[in-house]
Amino acid sequence: MSISKMISLHPDVGDDLNEPLATAIRHAMFCAVIATSCADACAAEPGDMSQCIRVCSDTASICTATAAVATRRTGQNVAVLRTMLETCILACETSAAECESHDHEHCQWCAKMCRECAADCRAALPTVN
C-alpha cells in the first residue's frame, strides 16, 4: 500500500502529486508509531523516564495530526499545513534530542526516526504554497 498512490487518486491531485509531502506524510505516520512504542518502553524502564515519555507521546500525537492534515487535498489550508509541518519538525527534534540522551536501544531507534521525519517535513515545507 502506498500513501503516494492514494493521494494521486484524489480527483484534485492526479499528476500533480507533491512527492516530498507524500514522503513526509509516510514518515510522520511511522514516527507516530515508533514514538508511541518508545514512550511505552520508557514506562517499563527503571528510573525516571517521565520527560522522554512526555516528549515521545507529544511527538506521536503531533505526527499523527500532521499526517492527517497533510493527506487532505480538497481545497487549501496552506497556513495550517505549513504550521503543522513546522510543529512536527520541532516535536521531532525535541524528541530526538531527549531520546539521544538515553542509552536504551529503543530510544536510539526513536531518535533516528524522529530525525528522519524532521528532515522530510523540512524538505516538504518549500513545496507547500
Automatic annotation (TrEMBL):
Protein name as catalogued: Four-helix bundle copper-binding protein
Q: Which InterPro entries match?
A: Csp_YhjQ, YHJQ-like
Which organism does this record belong to?
Answer: Sphingomonas prati
Q: Which domain of life is it from?
A: Bacteria
PANTHER family associated with the record? CYTOPLASMIC PROTEIN, CYTOPLASMIC PROTEIN-RELATED
Show which residues constitute the signal peptide.
none
